[in-house]
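Request from the bench team (R.T.):
"We need a structural guess for the complex before ordering more magnesium ion. Sequence and SMILES attached. Just send the tokens back."

Command: build protein-magnesium ion structure.
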Amino acid sequence: MQNTVRPALYLGQNLPETIIELDSVKLSLPSAAGPVNILKGIDLKIAKGETAGLVGPSGSGKSTLLMVLAGLERPSSGRVTCAGAEFTRLGEDELARFRRDHIGIVFQSFHLIPTMTALENVAIPLEFAGRADAFDRAEEELKLVGLGHRLTHYPGQLSGGEQQRVALARAVAGDPDILLADEPTGNLDQSTGHEIIELMFDLHARKNATLVLITHDEALAARCHRIVRLRDGLVEKIEAGALA
Ligand SMILES: Nc1ncnc2c1ncn2[C@@H]1O[C@H](COP(=O)(O)OP(=O)(O)O)[C@@H](O)[C@H]1O
Ligand SMILES: [Mg+2]
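Reply to R.T.: structure attached below.
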């Protein structure tokens, strides 16, 4: 969409500002059969404002990589730098604060709090972040995703598409630098999924954020600036997409 990052920029002259940088990131987890190497040395730079489509076979490490980018999983080795913060240097509290102030995440299964209304789901994290205008802000964000008429509904009273709109509103309400999405349309029918994607690209442009989007949908990945192909815990290939 209306984005100014061009492939020539990050392929050559005038490198734009890097907002995400992974340096030899490895992640192993213990299992009964011994350690499982999930990420095997990921090097990746993502430019400010870029959209990156992350694709790869099931089990290739996409979700794990996203958790590492969000600071929700710590790598076993290597370095993660996001929006100027080197994660290894941050303690748990600092990391949580960093996440709150800089990162928005959307999951396949929405992850809304069932006992809170749509408005509360968006407003409460803003309140925790110390914003006095949390509820007004949340209402605005919900209107932006077309849910101005559903403010007092609980997640259980909303369709899947509406729940994902609430999750999107929550993810972007704090104006994050980085928006992460893990198969956000995976639980939705095709046309609802399509609406969510349009909304997500629209929010990405409007908020001037950087978007990392995991998807199974090649056509969707191709709409991003770049397509990052993961295989067996490694970046296999990076290609230019349509937005580039
Ligand atoms: N908590 C865990 N403990 C052990 N293995 C895990 C854990 N989480 C993920 N894995 C394994 O790591 C690999 C990558 O998983 P994941 O990142 O979810 O892949 P993807 O999102 O690409 O499908 C898979 O083989 C998965 O079984
Ligand atoms: Mg996954």
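Two things stood out. The mean pLDDT is 91. The beta strands are 18-29, 36-47, 51-55, 77-82, 85-86, 103-107, 178-182, 210-214, 226-231, 234-240.
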